[in-house]
Amino acid sequence: MREIDASIIISNIKEMCIEANLYLSNDIESAVKKAFDTEKNELGKKIIGQLIENLEIADKDQIPICQDTGMAIVFVKLGQDVHVTGMNLTDAINEGVRQGYVEGYLRKSVVKDPIIRENTKDNTPAIIHYDIVEGENIEITVAPKGFGSENMSRMYMLKPADGVEGIKKSVVEAVSMAGPNACPPFVVGVGIGGNFEKAAILAKTALTRDINTHHPDEHIKALEEDLLNEINALGIGPAGLGGSNTALAVNIETFATHIAGMPCAINMCCHVNRHSRRTI
Ligand code: SF4
Predict the structure, then answer these.
(1) What percent of the chain has pLDDT over 70?
(2) Ligand 1: distance of its center to the CA of 45 in Å?
């Protein structure tokens, strides 16, 4: 059994919150640059140029890419041969988020009660998804999520008879309804299968996958490619002002489901698709 002191978790989470808010991962940054080269609409090209300039300013001045520094979503793959010492893991993750958002001067966007709406002033609690895996490491992904795009996400409880066409119709409808409100160009995370909550978590997980990769199953890879083409044919374009780059990628994750259902969740994300991953 490997022992990992909670202080190591805290310092890593703190650094990852700051890192994710200041720099895009390489795959997203190069996709934005590629979109600049391929954008056919003059205004769309100008907007992408401004997004690239914004990334450069964030890097140079060490300020967040976007004013909405998001709610901290944390995916944890916890090796079953790891024993965290000094503090329980959930408290350690929240302490890391607290230190990252306070010491990194990131906007605190979390309210304690969804109706009373009093700010917690340190961006906690994080939303944490645990997965117990083999081994003696902990893989942590910190994915701060802005709510401009989160608010435009959708859940469809499709029936098996809806088929692939039903999935396509739902995803394209969700993207069309999101329009400029989710700050295109988008990364579209899609979760198909499982049940109501599993599909939503799959869609969120899909957003953390390298956008240069495809789902390993050929029919899902084909669906990712078809959907990206259909979405870009909508002409919503950068900032919703028209153009050929409405989405940078469509990432799909799937899971087994019930014979009577085919849940399909669409988690919309803007180009500020933040995630920082480390293995401890
Ligand atoms: S949707 Fe993205 S780019 Fe738009 S405000 Fe939110 S985090 Fe920023």
Answers:
(1) 100
(2) 19
